Amino acid sequence: MATFHIWTLGCQMNQADSLKLAAGLERLGYHAVEDDTAADLVVINTCSVRQHAEDRAYGRLGILKQRRLEGSTAKIVVMGCMVGPKTDDLRRRFPVVDEWARPQQFDGILAMAAEARDASDGELGSLLAGGMTRTYSLPSGPTAYVPVIHGCDKFCTYCIVPLRRGREASRPVDDILDEVRFLSDHGVREVTLLGQTVEAYGHDLP
Q1: CA angle 153, 155, 158 (to 5 degrees)
Q2: What is the per-residue DSSP string for 59-98?
Q3: Strand partners, 192
């Protein structure tokens, strides 16, 4: 069975993105493992809001680069807020990375993962055709995070979030309710609604 490991840095939105990707990989037949040395696919979900988080990502990439030089065949993915304006520099420093993805951009990762294990074209096609919208990870306890809006339109001078996560985009109400029902059916009793600007939810919906 193909295996994956996701290492997540940063905020609850990153945690939610990692859970979403994990659910998609599981639909492709992958199994999560705690030890990244045992994984066929290693994902680093990065944060660029704080320098410390970037430094930790660089450190982990250095370890993965060395493993590749020593013969590791694990696929390496970097996703999240460090991917964007700095990607060209990152590509030069870490040519061993197989896929780069900005926040919520899962298609390239899923396509690469499916190709690596000869996954069903039908399952991959379903995910790429919108199936990820209602693909959820099983909760690990009685609480869960549910993103309701992505991005930010504020462009504060001290904040990098709009440049990394894009403009505000609210999720449709039906999608949110579907996810909450799924979580409730699997034991969740408390849901925290997430967003960089939760108070802006709905302004862009019809």
Answers
A1: 145
A2: HHHHHHHHHHHTT---EEEEEETTSSTTHHHHHHH-TT--
A3: 145
The more confident residue out of 33 and 85 is 33
Task: Indicate the SS3 state at residue 20.
Answer: helix
Q: Where are the domains of the chain?
A: 3-132, 138-200
The residue ranking higher by pLDDT, 96 or 125, is 96
Selection from 106, 83, 116 nearest residue 24 by Cα: 106
Residue 85 predicted with pLDDT over 70: no
Confidence at residue 120, expressed as pLDDT on a 0 to 100 scale? 61
Tokens of 31: 């199994």
Q: Which CATH superfamily is domain 3-132 in?
A: Methylthiotransferase, N-terminal domain (3.40.50.12160)
- What is the pTM assigned to this prediction? 0.91
